[in-house]
Amino acid sequence: MEINHGLLIVLSGPSGAGKGTLCQELLRQMPDLKYSVSMTTRSPRPGEVDGVHYYFRSRQEFEAMLAKHELLESAQFCDHYYGTPRFAVEQAIQGGQDVILEIEIQGAMQIKKCFPQGVFTFIVPPSLDILSERIHKRGTETEEVIQKRLATAIQELEYVSEYDYVVINDEVPLAVEKLKSILIAEKCRVKRKPFVFKGGV
Question: Which sequence spans correspond to the domains of the chain?
């Protein structure tokens, strides 16, 4: 008998590499794939639903979870906590469901320490020139901010050796197919197949 557990797929990479686009397309093509919902201490915005967009918790509740190591990763931004609750991820995985998490590199490194069995995939642009072009096309940031993002991206690329896989996001359909292939390959890995045989082989 084969005991099936789901996988935790962690996507990260430099800003502008296209992580969000790939994640959305993967979720569209694989409806059984579960998106990891983050937890935050900020108040819900109009239309946001607890457990769907975020798990909304008080600062005291969040800090209590931090103390109990109940978060796979956490960070502070604009005086609010954000993090990935361990219970939701583990519950889905133990139920045989694959979970995908799109996150920045520092968060991914935190997760790797406490959940090394995850599948860590680094998304990169075809080149720094194309990355610069993508960020410029957004039209949402000043040139100074863009140059800082590019400098940060160069530093972040040094983390690629910490990941299991690297996917160059040149064409979205091709990159998505590579991600799907990674999931298939991971499910076939011997270490993920705790077979139990009855009556011998």
Answer: 8-188
Domain 8-188: assigned CATH number: 3.40.50.300
Q: Tell me how many helices (H) and strands (E) the chain has.
A: 7, 9
Name, in order, each residue with C-beta under 8 angstroms of 192's C-beta and a sequence gap of 6 or more: 5, 7, 186
* Tokens coding 188: 């076939």
Please report where in the chains the tokens 């109940």 appear, as a residue: 70
Name 93's Cβ contacts closer than 8 Å, sequence gap at least 6.
5, 6, 7, 8, 99
What is the rounded (10 degree) CA torsion for 188, 190, 191, 193? 70
pLDDT tens-digit series, residues 28-83: 999 999 999 999 999 998 999 998 889 999 999 999 999 999 999 998 877 899 99
pTM > 0.70? yes
